[in-house]
Amino acid sequence: MIFNLIIGALAGYGTRYAEEPLAAFLKDKFEIKQPDMRVLTFVVLMLAAAILIAISGKNGQPFPLVLGGAIGFFHVFLRKVGTEQYTIQKAKMDARKNSSSAPSQSDDSAVKEEPEPQEEPEPQEEPEEAEPVTPKKSNVKKPTQKKPPAKK
């Protein structure tokens, strides 16, 4: 399973590098646009990865192969997002650490700031009360219980 993931990641990573040689090979025979060429290159490399997995005799599970291909293809974007999230979380943790380790001031030396007056929220109109909805009576008759015969 990990073998499929690694092979898929290599195929996805190699898409950018194999795109130009494949385009040069197909340039004379077909007219293919740039985005389509990138997709075609990715498909060709994933097919080659699947053939390699089949030849090696490993369990050819498609999900790890495709997941690895996506990770390899979008590795630049994923790394950028991960780095941004890391810096954001690190800044938050540093801010928490600095606020918790700051020396506390005594009440005598602390300057009290007056809170800004808050505006009262505007009164909202109350919604009109809706008439209660009564359930509709169904046309289905309820079965009546038969009374036992009277004893004489």
Describe the structure.
The structure is a single chain. The chain is 57% helix and 0% strand. By secondary structure, it is mostly helical. The chain has a domain at 2-74. Helix 1 (2-13) runs parallel beside helix 4 and helix 3 (34-56) crosses helix 4 (62-73). The model is unreliable at 106-111 (pLDDT under 50).
List keywords for this structure.
single chain, 152 residues, mainly alpha, 0% strand, extended
In short:
By secondary structure, the chain is mainly alpha-helical. It is built from five helices and no strands. The protein has a domain at 2-74.
Task: Specify the structural class.
Answer: mainly alpha
Q: What does the largest sheet look like?
A: none
Overall average pLDDT? 78
Stretches with pLDDT under 50, minimum 5 residues: 106-111
Cα radius of gyration in angstroms: 35 Å
Q: State the helical fraction.
A: 55-70%
Region (Disordered): 92-152
Biased composition (Basic residues): 138-152
Biased composition (Acidic residues): 116-131
Keywords: Membrane, Transmembrane, Transmembrane helix
What does the secondary structure layout of this molecule look like, with pairings?
Elements: H1 2-13, H2 15-26, H3 34-56, H4 62-73, H5 75-101
